[in-house]
Amino acid sequence: MVTNQDSQQPILFFTQERQQRLDLIMHLIPNSRQPVLLRGPDAAGKSFFIGQFVKQAPKEWLVCALEADELLVSVLDSIELAVNTVQQTDKAIHSRLSAWSDQEKVVVALIEDAQLLGSECVEQLFQLRQEYSCLRLLITSSENLGDDVEGRCQLIDLEPFTQKQTIEYAKTRVSSKGLNFVNLAGVDDVVLFIETGGLPGRINDVLDQMQKNPLRDGAIKKPSNKLFIMSVVVVSIVLAVFLTYGLWSEDVVDEGPVLAIPLEKDLASGEHIKKTHQAELVKAQESANVLTKPVIVGNKDNRAEEGVVKEEEITKSLAPLIEPSLPVIEKAVKQVSPPDAVKSIITPPEPDVKVVEKLIKKTPLALHLEWIKAQSPTSYTLQLMGASEEKSIRQYIASKKDVVELRYFRHKRNNGAWYTVIYGTYADKTSAEVAAKSLPPQLKNIKPWVRSIESVNKDLFQ
Questions:
Q1: What is the dotted CATH code of the domain comprising 16-157?
Q2: Is residue 109 scored above 90 in pLDDT?
């Protein structure tokens, strides 16, 4: 028995095309009483598709599976047994189906391999669907059921994978199963696609055969023992040479001069020039002290005069160093100014205003979320549909350009992987119910769900 409560099978590979078909079925079940027929060849993944339907179905739906061999005995008894198994009761099925129809509850009957059922059994299922409005039929078949049956169903074909999807599925399965990927190395992509026809079940069969094939396992070469020993010997010799010459080397490596770049503050204010000038001035004064030191030769007065003359001459020669002119300092500052590359490192560029505005710009989902939160919790709205892809929802809203009151939000369902469309806001439930019966022409084929803004806020995924 398969229910939306006990389905825990993991997702190995579910393409976007198949998810779109599943989204369509999710929309048709509550809004149309027409049976849904999922048709595809054997091993096309119909059972896995049904498993995903059970996993993603809303919790308020009652989903149960009916065995084909049980239906051949009695359709009504089979439905009663399935419902009793899910609800763990033994009440009569007629009274419950009638009550659920009055409550507009959704009861989904899953029937796989409908090609095994006879035309009389299928006809009984269709009659029960007409008698009880709560009952929905989702059936699968690997064969054509005929125009009489398929003409009364919403037909959805499950197509095989393309060549690219076949390889992606194979890699995903190998990774999830923890299998040895070496076994896939010699498989040609085209050959795998031709052998399997892009059918998941056949792809699994081929991978299982490859995994159990002893010839492929034996074809994997093992490393030679001789080669391994030679490698160990070579590595040992290299390490011995390195340790012998590397550890006892006494050579000293000259690290070279260190380049110091003055800070921008010192360069801009001329502090760097002043410091350099002061250092040169100190050296000049020391040289002057040495040169002006009197030499004791001959007459004392003559020695004093000669010392004074020499001091005056040296002072004149050092004048440019002691009192440099302003143009000289400005020229030196310009010469030592850092290049543009250094300035760009010291001073970071200003942020681009356009880039910042683009980052701050809110997404459509965020704008719709603000609108919902701004509404009164006691007001009501109309829920129209849902899908697992935000792109699909936005395309749907874009196709209804004349309907300006469409909004959508991210639902808590499937851990946020669901988006729901709502329409309008109304002061009370009565006004919302009246509006649900007079929707715009673009929304005429949809049966909306009247719900409060408070309940929408509880379902928001933030």
A1: 3.40.50.300
A2: yes
